[in-house]
Amino acid sequence: MGLLLSRLKQLELGSGSNFDNFANMETNENFEKTSIKFPDLEEIPTELSLKILKYLNATDLCLAACVWSSLANDDTLWQGLCRSTWGYLTVYEKRLEAKKNFRRIFMLLDEATLTFNVDWKKGLDYLFEKELLENNPMEIAKFINSTQKLSSEQKKKLFNENKQVLENVIILHNFENQFLPTALRKLFIKVEAHSERTPNLSFLVEKFAKQFCSCNPQLGLNEDTVYIICFSLIILSVDLSNPAIKNKMSKREFIKNTRNALPDLNPDFTGHLYDNVYLNGSIATFQRKNENLVAIQ
Question: In the chain, which end has fewer C-beta atoms inside a 10 angstrom radius, N or C?
Answer without folding.
Answer: N
